[in-house]
Amino acid sequence: MSTLLSLREVWIEYGDKIVLERVSLDIEAGSFVSIIGPSGAGKSSLLRILLGQEIPTRGTILLDGVPLTPECGPDRGVVFQRYSVFPHLSVLRNAVFGIECAKAPLSARLFGAARRAAMDEAVEMLNAVGLGDSLHLYPAQMSGGMQQRLAIAQALIKRPRILLLDEPFGALDPGIRADMHGLITRLWRDYALTIVMVTHDIHEAFTLGTRVIALDKRRHDPHAPHRFGATAVYDIPLRNRVDPAAVEKPGMAINEILSSS
Ligand SMILES: Nc1ncnc2c1ncn2[C@@H]1O[C@H](COP(=O)(O)OP(=O)(O)OP(=O)(O)O)[C@@H](O)[C@H]1O
Predict the structure, then answer these.
(1) Is the CB of residue 85 less than 8 Å from the CB of residue 63?
(2) Which InterPro entries does the record cross-reference, listed alphabetically (predicted)?
(3) DSSP-assigned beta bridge partners for residue 234
(4) d(Cα 20, Cα 172) in Å, to the nearest integer?
């Protein structure tokens, strides 16, 4: 596999608060990287710089060996924990809107054959996430899991190579979460995606990921908690990835997971 994203000595600082320090990582094309770490370790900040929403204070991020552009390009899609769908648009219109924004950035409207092609594309993607029977529902009429399926469809409709997931299943019930694990695994394979997912759920991290990276501080100054930032303290490649549908042991202890990976 080839390196798709490279982080070189990346630092993120907000004022005098150092959030991340010296993060150097190579992320291979086609990998599924789970990012774990304590609250405040900088996991979401890391995703924001990969998305291009923020630029690192120091260091470089390369995409295909070229410095990342400081805006969110079509090669990257993102799904957040809270549903980011438009409440006043139907499922189909939500998905079509994503294509319209990509293809007609000024007016966000397509007409004629271009609109029909966008509709076909949207229906195909909505079928892929299991919303083919819900095209005309509005978000308020859907469950949390369905709304997250729509958010995933919106992110994938621009056919990104990289999908960034920020606790995408954190607000869902365990049963729905298991369904979503199956869905994201299938989409990762079918669309040849590279996925970077932040999660607080260690079981999810090890079940879905081909690699788990733990962010935490190596150094602490009790008198100045923001003096040192977090970095990648563990970087665990997982050769034997588990089929999410086959996993029935939520809440496994980390040492059990580590010894079984
Ligand atoms: N724009 C900002 N300005 C100042 N501080 C910020 C900003 N964004 C994030 N921070 C701080 O950076 C630190 C890391 O935040 P971040 O959200 O990346 O952590 P996290 O690991 O994702 O946390 P959680 O697991 O609780 O979501 C926190 O202390 C947060 O308050």
Answers:
(1) no
(2) AAA+_ATPase, ABC_SmlMolc_Importer, ABC_transporter-like_ATP-bd, ABC_transporter-like_CS, P-loop_NTPase
(3) 214
(4) 29
Is the distance from CB of 95 to CB of 159 less than 8 angstroms? no
Q: How far apart are CA 79 and CA 165, in angstroms?
A: 5
For the cut 70, the answer to whether the pLDDT of residue 101 exceeds it is yes
Distance 111 CA to ligand 1 centre (A): 42
Task: Say if the ipTM goes beyond 0.90.
Answer: yes
What is the residue type of 260?
A: S
Ligand 1 proximity of 234 Cβ (cutoff 6 Å): no
For 128, the token pair is: 């892929």
- Cα–Cα distance, 244 to 197 (Å, whole number): 15
Q: What is the pLDDT of residues 159-170, one digit of tens each?
A: 899 999 999 999
Atom of ligand 1 nearest to the CA of 37: 21
pLDDT at 32: 97
Give, for 14, the enclosing helix (H) or strand (E): strand 3-14
* Measured distance CA(246)–CA(172) in Å, rounded: 19
Residue with the nearest Cα to atom 1 of ligand 1?
14
Q: Is 16 left (phi over 0), alpha (psi -120 to 50) or beta?
A: alpha
Q: Taking a C-beta distance cutoff of 8 angstroms, is the pair 100, 108 a contact? A: yes
| Alpha helical stretches, state H, 53-138 | 91-103, 112-128
What's the one-letter identity of residue 164? L
pLDDT in tens, 235-253: 999 965 555 554 433 334 3
